[in-house]
From TrEMBL:
<dbReference type="InterPro" id="IPR024185">
    <property type="entry name" value="FTHF_cligase-like_sf"/>
</dbReference>
<dbReference type="InterPro" id="IPR003741">
    <property type="entry name" value="LUD_dom"/>
</dbReference>
<feature type="domain" description="LUD">
    <location>
        <begin position="112"/>
        <end position="204"/>
    </location>
</feature>
<protein>
    <submittedName>
        <fullName>Lactate utilization protein C</fullName>
    </submittedName>
</protein>
<dbReference type="Pfam" id="PF02589">
    <property type="entry name" value="LUD_dom"/>
</dbReference>
<dbReference type="InterPro" id="IPR037171">
    <property type="entry name" value="NagB/RpiA_transferase-like"/>
</dbReference>
Amino acid sequence: MSSREAILARIRSAVAGAPAAEVTRGYRAARVESGDVELFAGRVRDYRAIVHVVPADEVAATVARALSGQGVRSLVVPGGLPGEWLSEVPAEVERLGDAPPLAAADLDAAGGVVTGCAAGIAETGTIVLDAGPGQGRRALTLVPDYHLCVVLADQIVPGVPEAVARLDPVRPMTWISGPSATSDIELNRVEGVHGPRTLEVIIVM
């Protein structure tokens, strides 16, 4: 008998015959109101991300300016991304599709990636991707050093319970709270360790 088996056997013996205990869980239920765009934008900025709040007719111009500002010359474009978002991106910016899947070296060499999202959480400033249309597989947003994400206002929910309620639990989800960063070594913040060094978010009203 292994140590694990011995411990579990002692636990089973100790609780044998004990009545079942009802566990009361005080989880906060999902609310019905929409998310607070201003709160979401503020929380995302707190994570040192770049944030733009624009009307729908300014998305293409904002995307083009953001890419130009970052000096992006090659851009990973996941399948299903709305073409109008890239309509003002100069033709000289190379667009890299992911079919067939790009190799890790190609993703690493790309100037950045632009995606949509599945949800945004106002309370925590978190963006959730679930590999749906316009988002691509997880590697697309983890390997390139720059991630430009477009979040629609109606995708923003108040808190985590509301996000969980609208997400499909069987999909591969990535929860993003700002650029990749760690302070593991002597509490010095280092960005870009296990994901994009720069996160830029366009919130569409």
